């Protein structure tokens, strides 16, 4: 792991890119990167233990859960071959990232 602390911009950018990517292989890679960035950012915020971090921690938790739901929906979609994963991703609500 590098010495650079993950920033708010890093995880949000990866999260949004993963949700908007239409190529399933690229989307899967971006989801993994976004999940890792979310975990790393959450660890940084927990170490800082500032009361001012609660909004971003909430967004991190929501985003991590949402990515897990997208993965489950895409697995179900692949099994059923009835839905397009990229189309399904855009139907989920977006996290309120402007608050973090």
CA radius of gyration: 14 Å
Order of helices and strands: HHHH
Distance between the termini: 24 Å
Please identify the oligomeric state: single chain
Globular, elongated, flat, extended or rod-shaped: what is the shape? elongated
Q: Total number of β-strand segments? A: 0
Largest sheet: none
- Strand content is under 5%
Number of helices: 4
Helical fraction equals over 70%
Strand-pairing-aware structural class? mainly alpha
Low-confidence stretches: none
Mean pLDDT across the residues is 79
Account of the 3D structure:
The chain is mainly alpha-helical. Helix content is 72%, strand content 0%. It has four helices and no strands. The chain has helices at 8-20, 24-48, 54-80, 85-91. Helix 1 (8-20) runs antiparallel to helix 2 (24-48) and helix 2 runs antiparallel to helix 3. The longest helix has 27 residues, at 54-80. The protein is elongated, with a radius of gyration of 14 Å. The protein starts with 7 loop residues before the first helix and ends in a 9-residue tail after the last helix.
Q: What is the element layout, followed by pairings?
A:
Blueprint: H1 8-20, H2 24-48, H3 54-80, H4 85-91
Helix pairs in contact: 1-2, 2-3
